[in-house]
Backbone:
C-alpha cells in the first residue's frame, strides 16, 4: 500500500474489528527487472520506491499513534541481506533495503521507553512467491537449495530476535556468514564476482 487514504482505511478497519493492534509487518516488497540502471524505466523505479519505502512509512505513521497510546506493540520492517551489499543490475532494491535498516534503527531509538519495539528483518533467499516475476523465475532452480530458507524458519527467528530486542535480525547462520563476508573487503569482492555470475544465469 502506497496511498495514504488506503493505509488509513486499513488502520481504521483493523482497529474497529479487533480494538487494538499488536504487530505491524511491512512485508510488501518490489524489485525491478535485472538491468543496468540506465535501462530501468522511471515508472518501474517509482514503483519500487513507492512499495519499498513510501508504503512502510505510511503504515507506520498511521498505526504508531495507536501503539503509543497502548504503550506496546511491534513494527517489523522486512528488509534483506541485500541491504549489506551493492549488487550490479539490482542497485535500487539494495538501496531501499539499506534505507529500511537505518530507518528502523533510528525509529527504535526514537521510541525508546514507549513500549513499542522495532525490527528490520533481513532474510536471504527464502521460498516465497517474491521471485515469481519476469527475470527471476529461474532463481529457485539455478541457486543451490542449501542457500534457501523456509518462510516459517525466518518468522521463527524474527520473533525470537524481537523478544531479545535486536533491531537488525539476519535469520539463518549462512545469511549471517554472507553478511560478515560482505563486510570484509576481499570477501565483498568475491561475493560481487559470484553475484555477477548469477546475474548472467
Residues:
Amino acid at each position: 500500500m502506497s496511498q495514504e487514504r488506503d493505509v488509513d482505511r486499513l488502520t481504521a478497519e483493523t482497529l474497529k474489528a479487533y480494538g487494538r493492534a499488536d504487530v505491524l509487518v511491512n512485508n510488501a516488497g518490489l524489485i525491478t527487472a535485472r538491468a543496468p540502471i540506465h535501462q530501468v524505466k522511471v515508472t518501474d523505479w517509482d514503483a519500487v520506491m513507492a512499495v519499498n519505502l513510501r508504503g512502510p512509512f505510511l503504515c507506520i505513521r498511521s498505526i504508531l499513534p495507536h501503539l503509543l497510546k497502548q504503550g506496546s506493540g511491534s513494527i517489523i520492517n522486512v528488509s534483506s541481506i541485500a541491504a549489506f551489499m551493492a549488487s550490479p543490475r539490482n542497485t535500487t532494491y539494495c538501496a531501499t533495503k539499506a534505507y529500511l535498516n537505518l530507518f528502523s534503527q533510528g525509529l527504535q531509538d526514537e521510541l525508546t521507553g514507549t513500549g513499542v519495539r522495532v525490527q528490520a528483518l533481513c532474510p536471504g533467499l527464502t521460498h516465497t512467491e517474491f521471485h515469481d516475476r519476469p527475470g527471476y523465475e529461474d532463481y529457485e532452480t539455478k541457486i543451490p537449495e542449501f542457500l534457501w530458507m523456509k518462510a516459517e524458519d525466518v518468522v521463527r527467528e524474527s520473533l525470537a530476535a524481537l523478544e531479545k530486542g535486536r533491531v537488525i535480525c539476519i535469520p539463518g547462520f549462512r545469511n549471517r556468514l554472507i553478511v560478515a563476508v560482505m563486510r570484509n573487503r576481499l570477501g565483498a569482492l568475491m561475493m560481487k564476482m559470484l553475484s555477477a555470475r548469477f546475474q548472467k544465469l
Remarks:
- The chain is about 55% helix and 10% strand.
- The CA atoms of residues 120 and 168 lie 5 Å apart.
- The two ends are 32 Å apart (CA to CA).
- The first strand starts at residue 23 and ends at 26.
